[in-house]
Design a protein that fits this description.
heterodimer, A: about 375 residues, alpha+beta, five-stranded mixed beta sheet, five-stranded antiparallel beta sheet, elongated, B: about 80 residues, mainly alpha, 3 helices, globular
Chain lengths: ~375, ~80
């Protein structure tokens, strides 16, 4: 943030586009600007309303060279835009260098991406030192399939304005300004509560991810610190309340399930073509959701748990069981519906309500009964 | 033809000076641009810039630094010396 942390004292801000670049159709400029504001709306309680006359909090213009703010532009390249921290007068305003070639594609200078960065300043964010962050000062080509905010950007803006009250809001698909949501936010889950249960658990690039409602915790088995995030901060198109998740480490892919759909992610990118229906995996139509899943690296099999049964998919033969088996038959000591499961070293960890059962597949028995928060420093 | 290294170097120096003036609040003190001492103001500013932008901190105009300062960027300064 800027020195003194200037920020807007209100949650509904106005913006006005004073003039348009000839590089793009005015409707494309409007859309790029709106989309950029929607990204910031998706992670904060802020709303943005377009005005066509009079003064607005954020005045947007295209200009060349000197343009009456003592910071002239410099022709093509170099400085491509700038914006001012929240405040009166110039405060919040964003200026774009008309000498750039503004585009809506990844060629030239993408207006949406630059506007998104500049509006970060308009809202109170200073430059980030993190080269992966949107607020890093150097422009780079962006990947439209990846949510443009880095965790550093989200942390910064939420430090100023708090989190979004919406559980799910994809700025890339939503061009509408949404009505203010209910102000009541459900209490954040307490990781050390004895009543804690999880929606899903999976390994993820050497860490373990524990999903609960719209959040997840990240924990490295040998590091004490725990990271707590919004699912939407990593994967904005994913719904909250994930049912099941598993990782295929050799492909660097993680599969997440919700209802009868699933998504495949790599890092914070949702791979194209998802969601897909779970039936493409070979499930019968009477399966409407998956309770838990994990990938057994040793056997190359994926296990899907549904009520008191499980299905297994053999990755090598690429075939699904014709019909499910009873969980207790293959995993003695594990009875009934389970919430989540993952593999760590040579053990499987089954979550069942307030209990976690460590299962040794070699001995075919439960070796320890643990609390659900066993992995956390409680 | 051999490249005129002196001319090239002068261009680079002007480029970095302008960059530091624009984004790192650098003020020329009149000394020759070619005086590159460890503790000279321009070396200190280059180090500050390299540290901020995640480059290797050499205090010198190496190729990575030159590459980065020629890329398009936000016109807002990277240091807090503004009002």
């Amino acid at each position: 943030t800027f020195a003194g942390e200037p920020k807007w004292a209100k949650q509904v801000l106005t913006y006005r586009i004073l003039n348009y670049t000839p590089d793009l159709h005015p409707a494309d400029v409007d859309a790029a600007i709106k989309k950029a504001f929607n990204v910031w709306s998706s992670v904060t309680p802020l709303k943005f309303v377009k005005k066509d006359r009079d003064h607005a909090d954020i005045m947007i213009s295209f200009a060349v060279k000197g343009h009456n703010d003592f910071i002239p532009f410099d022709g093509p390249g170099g400085s491509i835009a700038h914006a001012y921290a929240p405040g009166k007068g110039f405060g919040g305003d964003a200026h774009f260098d008309e000498d750039e070639t503004w585009t809506k594609s990844t060629e030239g200078t993408n207006l949406f991406y630059v506007a998104l960065h500049e509006f970060g300043h308009s809202l109170g964010l200073f430059h980030s030192k993190d080269p992966e962050a949107l607020m890093y000062p150097v422009y780079r080509k962006f990947d439209p399939s990846v949510f443009p905010l880095h965790q550093d950007d989200t942390n910064g803006i939420q430090h100023l304005y708090g989190r979004s009250p919406n559980t799910y809001n994809d700025p890339r698909e939503s061009a509408e300004i949404k009505e203010p949501a209910e102000p009541k936010e459900p209490a954040l889950p307490d990781i050390c509560s004895p009543d804690l249960t999880f929606d899903a658990v999976t390994t993820f690039r050497g860490e373990i991810m524990f999903f609960k409602d719209k959040h997840f915790w990240r924990k490295h088995p040998s590091v004490r610190a725990v990271d707590f995030n919004l699912i939407s901060a990593f994967w904005p198109r994913l719904p909250s309340g994930v049912d099941a998740a598993y990782e295929v480490p050799e492909k660097d892919e993680t599969v997440l399930f919700k209802g009868n759909e699933f998504w495949v992610v790599r890092g914070d990118t949702i791979l194209p073509g998802y969601p897909q229906k779970i039936y493409v995996l070979g499930f019968s139509k009477d399966v409407t959701k998956i309770d838990a899943a994990f990938y057994n690296r040793n056997k190359g099999k994926i296990y899907y748990f549904i009520a008191d049964k499980f299905w297994s998919y053999n990755k090598r033969s690429q075939s699904m069981d014709r019909k499910p088996r009873q969980i207790r038959d293959a995993f003695p000591g594990i009875n009934g519906k389970i919430d989540a499961v993952f593999q760590h070293k040579n053990f499987f960890y089954f979550f069942h309500g307030r209990k976690q059962l460590e299962f040794d597949p070699g001995k075919k028995r439960v070796t320890r009964v643990l609390k659900t928060n066993f992995w956390f420093p409680c | 033809f051999p490249v005129d290294m002196r001319e090239k170097k002068e261009e680079d120096v002007q480029l970095i000076q302008k960059y530091l003036e624009n984004y790192y609040n650098f003020k020329k003190d009149g000394e020759s641009s070619f005086v590159w001492k460890n503790n000279s103001p321009i070396t200190k500013k280059i180090k500050e810039m390299q540290e901020f932008l995640g480059l290797e901190v050499t205090g010198k105009l190496d190729s990575n630094t030159l590459d980065l300062i020629q890329k398009p960027r936000c016109g807002f300064p990277d240091v807090a010396g503004f009002s």
